[in-house]
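task queued by scheduler; priority normal; single chain, no ligands, no partner chains; default sampling; output format set to structure tokens
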Amino acid sequence: MAITAELVKTLRERTGAGMMECKKALTETNGDIDAAIEYLRKRGMAAAAKRAGRSTSEGIVGILVNADRTSGTLAEVNCETDFVARTDEFKALVDEITAAIAATDQSHESLVASDGPLGQRLTAAIATVGENMAVARSARVSADYIGSYSHMGGKIGVLVQIDGVSGEARQHEAFTSFVNELAMHVAAASPQYTNRAEVPAEAVEKEKDIYRAQMAESGKPANVVEKIIEGKLGAFYEQIVLVDQPTIRDPKVKVAQALEAVSKAIGQPLTIRGFARFKVGEAGA
């Protein structure tokens, strides 16, 4: 019997399995839809598809940094329960997925497509464990030096990008300590931007409009109001901009000041290029 595209589509709609799996199942069963469904079920594919709609709010953020710490990868892999997330099997799966994402320029969506090797790996894991699983997001970053931090057993994963360090300075205690604390800081403080230049102009103007409305009945001259508004913006930046935030070690010292201090200590001017921070469940929130 000829295996038409319409027949493959019908099987996919009924099982949620990948196109190639459906085509193979229909070929093996001579186009018999019911037999093809049974074929897929026996291989766990239809069972995995039935779980595809179930919520995946638990999981782990996988972290991988290369040997010379110049590139790093984050991958959030979700499952249904914290019990599964804490198993060695799931952790191994997360490591495998993170490594695969790190090794290619392809998006995680294409890597875990149902017909791809990681998609088949996920399908098999879903069938074995009995829970839905998904790769929610991934990030690849690069810099002269990448710092990393995993919090709460992988519930939060952080990568920080530092430029300007080279040679023996990479091993300097002041530098390694700063990078470790910076990654911990990002995990705890959850900044949205690295520096003020990254903050969208419309977001700044929106804050200014709020402050102007608050000062509308103050009776103060416009130039005084604008100076007050500029002062208020400082507190706004402290909430969302990494270099403006007080450090977790000493609230009296901002990240920018700590960066300047470590630059002097190692004799090399450092800059924070950026960061990546994933918290399990945020992508679907």
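post-processing summary
- Residues 227 and 233 are 10 Å apart (CA to CA).
- The longest strand covers residues 71-79.
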